[in-house]
Amino acid sequence: MMSKNTNEKAKLKKPNCPQCKINRFRVQNEKGDSVVVTVNKNFEVEPIHPEESLEGFDLTIVYCLGCSWKGSLKSLSTNH
Ligand SMILES: [Zn+2]
After folding, report:
1. What is d(CA 49, CA 18) in angstroms, rounded to the nearest whole number?
2. Number of neighbouring beta carbons within 10 Å of residue 62
3. Nearest CA to 63 among 74, 52, 51, 71?
4. Which of 3, 10, 76, 80 is spaced 20 to 30 Å from 69 by Cα?
């Protein structure tokens, strides 16, 4: 039998909203502008549209597009 540990990383899932389980969020800057983003398996915020810049945006708080949830990247759910 192979060690179970070798499979752990392949099973990593994208972090989702802990309430509605989607992977679409907004981030905001100081002016109140927002960009639609997703969060990858490494908990990195990525814009849905690659040409959009996240410069100046606060990436520590994400706002769910599917419900009223907002929070830090660490509080996203990978248990799904
Ligand atoms: Zn949600």
Report:
1. 24
2. 25
3. 71
4. 10
- Which tokens belong to 51? 């040409």
Model confidence, pTM: 0.82
> How distant, in Å, are the alpha carbons of 11, 21, 27, 65 from that of 15?
12, 9, 15, 14
| CA 65 / ligand 1 centre spacing (Å) | 6
Cα 37 to middle of ligand 1, angstroms = 13
For 23, how many CA atoms within 13 A lie in the half-sphere containing its CB?
18
Q: Rounded to an integer, what distance in angstroms lies between the CA atom of residue 4 and that of residue 17? A: 28
Give me ligand 1 centre to Cα 5, in Å.
31
Parse the chain into domains and list their residue ranges: 4-75
